[in-house]
């Protein structure tokens, strides 16, 4: 394990606020988002840095005064950080409508924390010429709103941003390929830091960092890592401790279906007659979040991932109260079980101390898989 | 300790409702026998008018949940769902209907003749996530049903623009084509116009009825809100208009005669969020101390008018508006609506039901609470509960807190 290779990424994650405050002090304006369905390329092309608002690292206190206890820990942490002033540098929030909690949070943030722009982008559920045309109209509307904040739209800039994000995603997917081949000398915890840094860093810096990482990996070369290969499915995982425990106990996270992972990367880009078209095309072809699609349609994608990666079991690591994932889980469990694929469901609570029950359950699960 | 109760109704017309409910479900089952295509769909959109105009039978699984709650079937439905591995943290509507279609329905049971199997499923890409997931489950449960994958943008009412409307209109047209192809029935646009006129008339009557609640004392309370059954299941029919006309007449009469819900109305209350269907008697609870639940958020979903000159566009607009008006798509709008209602209905205190089964309505309640206090000086009581699952509700805790709240409100009088 070469944790030090991921050190520059971990440093950004651990010093998120200092990093972003420094960028803000240089006059860069930032737009926050919760979900990877947000059109980052457009926000970036118009001169803003899109920053994913993180949350799970913070224990909620103030947040309870504004939201009930039965909303996912991620959103509670997000609100806590917002209320503590951690994101004072944001000009606003743009969010693709995925889950109800995120939609509510855009509103609560606007009411209680403030900013200049709060925009929930309605995302089509169907792919058709009409839905693409509608999405184009909405993206144009969003561009108009960003212009009112001083942003500037140009086709050239959007082309460049689409290409930049494509390069990032392609590079990260190369790392996934290496992981499937057992040739990625990074622990899952370290790899998570690489991914998380991408939600904070400017994409230009981030691409450079990934390329540096890849060249150092080439030099190091690798021998196969051991451990029982697992696929981890869920929404947001921010705490690397989950992965440390899995790998300390003899598991190996080889693939994922996470929005802090593979789901936000595939495909790296779309195609179309112009950059906006390509953006829409990518959205339509995305490796889907359960909030957007039926469990029965996710199943074959997960089976493909299992096959491609060689994972022998699935760990459903779900945010407590996360309706899209919880509603899909029984069907996915049943179908996996019918195919002889063992799976385990663990719900992430707010507690930052994940060792206790998680450790016991993962040990038993790995025992079954050995 | 008091046991769960049904709500106490004072309107004679509210008591007529059970006959309308029975007749509706009889018609649903009769449709299956007669070969009239049955479609399961979410409520609060324009599909209902299209169905009635085409002579098809709409069925609303979401509405079935309050029926199951009223008949005490929810615990069994939850048991079935939880045995299938579903989390208790999921919306109670989802857990109830899933349990029903995989349990009682398979055994041919259920009250009111049960639900007829669907020939068609209108599966929404719209509204809240639990509703979408409910329909995904139903698609799997009824593999022979033809599925229409609807798509409607979730947009704040105040932000609806031309492109939202155009897309929603296209979706309504696509639905009409789908139904024609699936059922072999063509839509008669003159008939649709009649249906939309009836639907709009129902909305107009709804607003008229709600307006009488401004009277002091109020002629009826949230305990009678079951009358919205006709807005959910019968919009676009003569049945809804005739029934609501009778309700309006009775409410008007009571208002003119100064007849209140209770003899001495001392405190006027507002209910936010879906009521606890398993214990509707809670809406009467405050009456012992002189409190009447004068108004509620949920009725706003039908407080919209339809442009009868352009039926398709009217249905598209209705489809776009209903869900955002009662959810967290725009907390600003909901806050504005609650404040307006509390002002118009002369409310003294608000009960905010922190509803574990409904995240979209519960999110933003604290902002509404603060606005009520700051802008209108109206205090609120937050109660923890669930619109379907009584395991998430403590009656004793509710009573203690409700009593203290009433005491405080009375001391201000």
Write the layout of secondary structure elements.
The complex is a heterodimer of chains A (370) and B (413).
Chain A: H1 7-14, H2 16-25, E1 29-33, H3 40-45, E2 48-52, H4 73-83, E3 90-96, H5 100-112, E4 117-121, H6 129-148, H7 155-180, H8 188-197, H9 203-220, E5 228-234, H10 241-248, E6 251-257, H11 275-284, H12 295-309, E7 313-319, H13 323-338, E8 343-348, H14 355-369
Chain B: H1 12-34, E1 38-40, H2 47-53, E2 57-59, H3 61-70, H4 74-83, H5 92-102, E3 120-125, H6 129-141, E4 146-151, H7 162-183, H8 189-211, H9 229-233, H10 238-257, E5 267-272, E6 291-296, H11 311-325, H12 331-344, E7 349-355, H13 359-362, H14 365-376, E8 380-385, H15 395-411
Parallel strand pairs in B: 1-2, 1-3, 3-4, 5-6, 5-7, 7-8
Helix pairs in contact in B: 1-10, 2-8, 3-5, 4-5, 5-6, 7-11, 8-10, 12-14
Q: How confident is the prediction overall: mean pLDDT of chain A?
A: 94
Count of separate DSSP helical elements of chain A: 14
Radius of gyration of chain B: 21 Å
Question: Beta-sheet strand percentage of chain B?
Answer: 5-15%
* Shape designation of chain B: globular
Task: Give the beta-strand count of chain B.
Answer: 8
**The CATH architecture of the largest domain in chain B:** 3-Layer(aba) Sandwich
Q: Could you give the order of strands across the largest sheet of chain B?
A: 2-1-3-4
Percent range for β-strand residues of chain A: 5-15%
Q: Which value, in Å, is the CA radius of gyration of chain A?
A: 20 Å
Query: What's the CATH first level of the largest domain in chain A?
Result: Alpha Beta
Q: Which sequence of strands runs across the widest sheet of chain A?
A: 2-1-3-4
Total count of helical runs of at least 4 residues of chain B: 15
Overall 3D shape of chain A: globular
End-to-end Cα distance of chain B, whole Å, is 29 Å
Summarize the helix and strand pattern of chain A as letters: HHEHEHEHEHHHHEHEHHEHEH
Q: Structural class of the helices, strands and pairings of chain B?
A: alpha/beta
CATH topology group of the largest domain in chain B: Rossmann fold
Strand count, sense and barrel status of the largest sheet of chain A are: 4 strands, parallel
Number of domains of chain A: 2
């Amino acid at each position: 394990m070469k944790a030090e290779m991921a050190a520059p990424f971990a440093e950004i994650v651990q010093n998120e606020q200092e990093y972003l405050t420094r960028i803000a002090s240089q006059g860069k304006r930032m737009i926050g988002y919760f979900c990877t369905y947000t059109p980052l390329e457009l926000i970036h092309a118009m001169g803003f840095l899109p920053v994913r608002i993180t949350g799970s690292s913070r224990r909620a206190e103030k947040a309870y005064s504004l939201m009930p206890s039965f909303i996912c820990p991620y959103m509670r942490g997000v609100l806590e950080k917002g209320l503590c002033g951690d994101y004072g540098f944001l000009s606003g929030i743009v969010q693709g409508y995925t889950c109800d909690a995120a939609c509510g949070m855009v509103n609560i943030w606007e009411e209680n924390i403030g900013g200049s722009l709060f925009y929930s982008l309605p995302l089509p559920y169907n792919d058709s010429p009409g839905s693409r045309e509608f999405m184009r109209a909405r993206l144009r509307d969003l561009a108009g709103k960003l212009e009112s904040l001083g942003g500037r739209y140009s086709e050239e800039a959007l082309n460049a941003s689409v290409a930049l994000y494509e390069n990032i995603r392609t590079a990260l997917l190369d790392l996934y390929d290496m992981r499937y081949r057992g040739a990625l000398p990074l622990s899952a915890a370290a790899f998570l830091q690489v991914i998380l840094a991408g939600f904070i860093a400017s994409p230009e810096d981030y691409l450079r960092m990934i390329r540096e990482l890849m060249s150092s990996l080439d030099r190091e070369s690798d021998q196969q890592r051991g451990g029982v290969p697992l696929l981890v499915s869920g929404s947001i995982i921010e705490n690397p401790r989950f992965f440390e425990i899995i790998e300390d106990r003899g598991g190996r996270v080889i693939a994922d279906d996470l929005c802090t992972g593979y789901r936000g990367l595939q495909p790296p880009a779309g195609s179309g007659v112009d950059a906006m078209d390509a953006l829409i095309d990518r959205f339509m072809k995305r490796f889907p979040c359960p909030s957007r699609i039926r469990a029965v349609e996710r199943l074959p994608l997960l089976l493909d991932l299992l096959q491609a990666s060689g994972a022998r079991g699935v760990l459903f690591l779900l945010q407590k109260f996360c309706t899209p994932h919880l509603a899909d889980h029984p069907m996915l469990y049943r179908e996996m079980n019918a195919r002889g694929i063992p799976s385990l469901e663990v719900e992430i609570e707010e507690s930052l101390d994940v060792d206790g029950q998680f450790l016991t359950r993962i040990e038993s699960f790995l025992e079954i898989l050995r | 300790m008091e046991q769960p109760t049904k709500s106490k109704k004072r309107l004679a017309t509210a008591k007529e409702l059970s006959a309308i409910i029975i007749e509706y479900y009889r018609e649903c089952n009769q449709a299956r026998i007669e070969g009239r295509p049955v479609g399961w769909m979410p409520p609060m959109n324009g599909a209902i008018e299209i169905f009635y105009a085409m002579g098809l039978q709409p069925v609303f699984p979401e509405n079935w949940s309050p029926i199951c709650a009223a008949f005490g079937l929810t615990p069994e439905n939850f048991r079935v769902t939880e045995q299938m591995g579903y989390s208790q943290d999921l919306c109670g509507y989802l857990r109830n209907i899933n349990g029903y279609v995989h349990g009682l329905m398979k055994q041919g049971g259920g009250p009111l003749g049960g639900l007829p199997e669907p020939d068609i499923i209108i599966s929404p890409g719209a509204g809240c996530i639990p509703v979408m997931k409910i329909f995904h489950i139903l698609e799997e449960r009824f593999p022979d049903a033809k599925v229409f994958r609807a798509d409607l943008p979730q947009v704040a009412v105040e932000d609806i623009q031309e492109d939202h409307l155009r897309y929603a209109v296209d979706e309504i047209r696509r639905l009409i084509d789908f139904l024609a192809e699936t059922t072999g029935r063509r839509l008669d646009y003159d008939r649709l116009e009649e249906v939309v006129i009836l639907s709009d008339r129902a909305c107009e009557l709804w607003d008229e009825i709600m307006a009488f609640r401004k009277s002091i004392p109020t002629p009826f309370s949230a305990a009678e809100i079951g009358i919205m059954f006709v807005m959910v299941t019968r919009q676009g029919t003569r049945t809804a208009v005739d029934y609501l006309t009778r309700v309006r007449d009775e409410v008007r009469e009571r208002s003119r005669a100064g007849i209140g819900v209770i003899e001495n109305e001392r405190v006027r209350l507002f209910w936010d969020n879906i009521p606890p269907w398993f214990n509707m008697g809670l809406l009467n609870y405050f009456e012992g101390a002189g409190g009447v639940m004068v108004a509620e958020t949920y009725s706003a979903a039908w407080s919209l008018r339809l442009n009868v000159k352009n039926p398709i566009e009217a249905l598209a607009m209705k489809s776009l508006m209903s869900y955002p008006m009662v959810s967290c798509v725009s907390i600003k709008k909901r806050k504005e609506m609650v404040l307006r209602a509390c002002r118009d209905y002369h409310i003294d205190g608000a009960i905010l039901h922190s509803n574990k089964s409904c995240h979209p309505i519960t999110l933003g309640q604290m902002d509404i609470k603060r606005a009520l206090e700051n802008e209108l000086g109206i205090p609120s009581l937050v109660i923890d509960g669930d619109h379907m699952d009584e395991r998430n509700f403590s009656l004793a805790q509710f009573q203690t807190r409700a009593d203290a709240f009433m005491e405080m409100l009375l001391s201000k009088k």
